[in-house]
Design goal:
- This protein is α/β, with parallel strands linked by helices.
- The strands form 5 sheets. A 10-stranded mixed β-sheet has the order 7-6-5-4-8-1-11-13-2-14, sandwiched between helices.
Amino acid sequence: MKILPPLLFLALAFSLSAQGEAPSRPNLVVVMVDDMGYAGLGCFGNPHFETPELDRLAAEGMRLTDFHSSGTVCSPTRAGLLTGRYQQRAGIEAVIHPVSDHPEHRKGLKPSETTFAEVLQEAGYTTGLVGKWHQGYPKNSDEFHPQVHGFDEFVGFHSGNIDFVSHVGDHYEHDWWHGREETEEEGYSTHLINRHTLDFVRRHAEEPFCLYVAHEAIHNPVQVPGDPVRRTEDGWDRWKWQEHSEEERIEKYKGMTLPLDEAVGDLRRLLVELGIDKNTLVLFFSDNGAAADFPSGSPELRGDKGSVHEGGHKVPAIAWWPGKIEAGSESDAALISLDVMPTLLALANAPDPERPLDGVDISPLLLNGEPPAARPLFWASLNNGGARSEAMREEDWKLVVTHPKAAPGTFENETTALYHLADDPSEETDLSDEHPERTAAMLAELEAWYADTQETATPQPGGWLAVEEEPEQTVYLIGNSLTQDTIPTRLDGDVQWHIGCGKSLPYLFENPGMPCVKTSTVWPEALANKQYDIVSVQSHYGATLEEDAAVISEWMSMQPEAVFVVHTGWARSESRAEEWAADEAGGKMTHSVAYIEALVDKLKALHPDREIRRTRAMDLLARASARIEAGDAPVDDLTELYRDAIHMDHATGRYLMHNAMRHALGQPRSAAGFEKITPEMKAFLDEVLDSLDKP
């Protein structure tokens, strides 16, 4: 983050005060909804149903009838909104994808970017985010967390969408957070976002605040209040509009929109009730055009979500500020979501960041009806398959560039089309042949703009054309719930698994089609179709040393280049103390250091040319126990690191198991996802983990 020094800000404020013009300190509320097209509201032409609360907001404020999102999908628009700069400068051109091996998955908003929340926080505002973030998965980097980017408070989710009931994200993990604490909280997500929005306003009504409310609706999963769970950690039962009547589709559309409409009404009523409505600006708009689930787009606009045609980025927008913005007014000035940040900063008399903003301050338009000077607007879209398209708007002229059948991520096969929006708002008539000079000039300006964004673009991991990166480590894990305790989804690289609960390795070998974790890739398919860098195996009851060694040897023959890791972990409680300390190395499998060491020795004897490691998870438990018994730990008993007699606690013991596995894989230690651990406990666990580097 780079903003003007605090002393310079104070000097500016003092100068204004000395002139008798004390800086205004209005409250600032930005409400962004998801996947609502231009005709999603009654006051913007919704033919299916009314939206009384948002229509009232427009009647008491200003309709912005030519407002555009800077992106055509979620993540890019949000990056542009937060920074006031084209999102291409932040390296976020596409959806930050939930699938771990997707080229766009590991990207996120870096601390080098400056958000409006950071500037306003520095200027004395209390800042909050409620709802959707979608600026990077924290398990990939803590740098992506919203509280790293200027938000004092955060309640919501990190992924692109969550089940409205179970709150499981598009990455098939539970994704509802209060700050850095994963939180189980019952409720329909629109209602929860509304509840926490109102709570934030009540608590901060006596001080200047900036609140970013990022609603999930009307994005999928398609669920109205009262509907069942559709997504769990094991899968998604998607509601497909093609399989239902148009009447059913409209009912779902209405059922998801009206709770959102009522939430905005609740916010407006609360501001009035608290007597702060005349000191609060509310901006409302959508992040992109209509998704396919619902017909919220205007039939007069071409394209929808993901398209650089008007239907992909022209969205409904409302500005409301009683006594400041003329009631019932409207503007057809060409505006873009990048304009939000400079407008907020201007109204708060906050300093501009060091790096220039691409948006402009539109407060003169909102307060005095003075539109901004004409300027070109640009779009560059990159879809989930790597296809690119670009567009440029210059007054009434619109240039659209596509790249049919281009290699993913490239700008090959360039085709252009030129439209005159005043005469052809539906972009039906290509005028490029009639105006070749204008087409060429706009194309040159568009290409120069994109090149400019890339000159200083923030480096990001991955990407479609990232050929210089080291290949991702490939890992396959075979075991049961003790392997699940290592949290495979948070390991680095391309990680797959076969997890059968409570089953021995010979059983899994003979019964490969019965894993208990549905996200498993069964071992015959996984090991036959792909060579892994590392394969982890976890022994369990029901086998002998000879049987375990024989089964693992079969898998080693299928993976001749892989390093093999032997993992296990078990509760050292009174009921397991005798087994834990057993010196017996042969016979039936036991959860003892002696058995694991004997198994590793057996495998090394059978395969002297292969590298075989162990996670040493049991060593960690022994060393943690020794520290506890010596009174040198923040807990009184080792069992406090467990959630039951067998499995590790999510916030403590799993930190040991996860990082024991990371150490065996050669990956750096990670605390991502373990925000519930207290600093004292984390320091203790880190000291125990440090012993992995010692004999």
